[in-house]
Amino acid sequence: MEKESILIVEDEVNVIQFMKLELEHEGYEVTTAKDGEEAMARFQEKEWSVILLDWMLPKLDGLEVCRRIRKSSQVPIIILTARDYVGDKILGLDRGADDYITKPFEIEELLARIRAVLRRVRTGEKEEEDKLIVENLEVNLKSRRVTREGNEIELTQREFDLLVFLMKHEGEALSREWLLSAVWGYDFAGETNVVDVYIRYLRNKLDRHYEPTLIHTVRGIGYILRSS
C-alpha cells in the first residue's frame, strides 16, 4: 500500500526535525521545505496527501503559499502558527486552509488532525455523486442542468460554478472573500462586490419565483445556502 505523503513547510529546523521524525514513525512519507518559494517548488513535484504549512515563513508567508496552491489544488492544508487570535484563524481558513493548529502543540493532536483531514478527503471521494439536491433545487454536475420544481433554469458558467460551490457547502456561512477566491480565483482579489452581483443573479433565477428561499445573507460575513 502506497504511503500517504506529507509536505512540511517550516523554517525552524528543530520543529522540522521533530515533526519529520514523528510522522515517519507513523508511516508517512515526509518531504520538507524551509520557505515559501521552496514550498511552491515542492508542491509542483507531486500529488501530496497533506501539507503542513507554517504561517510565518521567509520569502512568501504561509497565507500567500496557501492562496497560490488553492488556484490549482484542493490538497488538505493545515496551518501551523503561534498566532492564536480567533481572527487569524478565520483568516487562515478563509484563505483556503482546511485546519489550523497553534504552536506549541502536542504531536498526538497534530496526528489526529492529519487523520481527520485525510478521512474527510476519502469520504468526499466515496460520496461524490453526479447530482446535488437541496429541497426542490437539483443540479446535475455532468450535464450541468439546473432545475427547480422540475423547471429548467438557464445559468451562465459563473453562475453555475457559484451555485455548485454554495450547494457543496450547504449550511455553511461563506465569506465573500472565500466565494471570490473559490469561484473567480485570485485575479479578482479585493473585488468582493462581484460576489454580491452574482448572488443577486442567482436569487432572481432560483429564489424569486420559488419557495422556500434558499440563498440567505449572513450579516457581516457573506452568504449561506440552506434548506428550510
What percentage of residues falls in helices of 4 or more residues? 40-55%
Going across the major beta sheet, what is the strand order? 2-1-3-4-5
CATH architectural label of the largest domain? 3-Layer(aba) Sandwich
Average pLDDT over all residues: 87
Question: What is Rg?
Answer: 20 Å
Number of E strands: 12
Notable features of this structure?
single chain; 228 residues; alpha/beta; Rossmann fold; Arc Repressor Mutant, subunit A; 2 domains; 5-stranded parallel beta sheet; 4-stranded antiparallel beta sheet; 21% strand; elongated
Task: Describe it.
A hairpin with a 3-residue loop joins strand 11 and strand 12. The longest helix has 21 residues, at 107-127. Helix 6 (157-168) packs across helix 8. The protein is an alpha/beta fold. It is elongated. It has two domains: 5-126, Response regulator (Rossmann fold), CATH 3.40.50; 131-225, Orthogonal Bundle (Arc Repressor Mutant, subunit A). The protein has helices at 13-25, 36-43, 62-69, 86-94, 107-127, 157-168, 176-184, 193-207; strands spanning 5-9, 29-33, 50-54, 77-81, 99-102, 131-134, 137-140, 145-148, 151-152, 174-175, 215-218, 222-225. It is 42% helix and 21% strand. The strands form three sheets. The chain has a five-stranded parallel sheet, with helices on both faces. It contains eight helices and twelve strands. The mean pLDDT is 87.
